[in-house]
Design goal:
Elements lengths: L1 H20 L7 E12 L4 E10 L6 E12 L2 E8 L3 E3 L4 E10 L1 H12 L4 E14 L2 E13 L5
Antiparallel strand pairs: 1-2, 2-6, 3-4, 3-5, 3-7, 7-8
């Protein structure tokens, strides 16, 4: 019984030690820089969404992938996952592209009908950055702002 108690105490100590030494990360900040249509027909359009990500941490942030949802003017525009790895330098930033496919009927048509000549469109992007830093594997994020969609008009 005494050995069981010592073992449990040792395991609790190790678990608490791991929490103390686990890196604490601030959430990266993402901004949608631009949206460009690369190809399309009446039913499917392909875009490249240029993103900027800022790392407020004092260590490099290796990104293995990003799971995301993009909303434009409150409507779901696209969702997906990018599994192209890259590294965001400590206290630095990096731009990267997300390939996006949407279909006219479900999202692009609604967006175009609501633009009414506007070039600046509200966006929200939410998702998870996949990384492997210590015991941290997923860092959730939600960001919003405006982007110039003149390329779609």
């Amino acid at each position: 019984m005494r050995q069981l108690f010592r073992f449990a105490a040792l395991m609790a100590f190790l678990a608490l030690s791991a929490c103390v030494f686990a890196p604490k990360l601030e959430k990266p900040r993402l901004n949608l820089v631009s949206v460009q249509m690369t190809s399309g027909d009446m039913f499917n359009q392909q875009f490249v969404v240029r993103m900027n990500v800022q790392n407020p941490n004092d260590r490099d942030l290796p990104v293995n992938g990003i799971d995301y949802k993009i909303f434009l003017e409150g409507d779901s525009f696209a969702e997906g996952m990018s599994n192209v790895p890259f590294v965001i330098p400590a206290m630095g930033e990096k731009e990267f592209d997300l390939p996006v496919r949407t279909n006219f009927v479900s999202s692009l048509g609604r967006l175009l009908s609501r633009l009414n000549g506007k070039r600046q469109v509200r966006y929200q992007i939410e998702g998870t950055v996949m990384t492997k830093i210590g015991m941290i594997h997923k860092v959730p994020f939600t960001e919003s702002g405006t982007v110039d969609l003149g390329v779609l008009q």
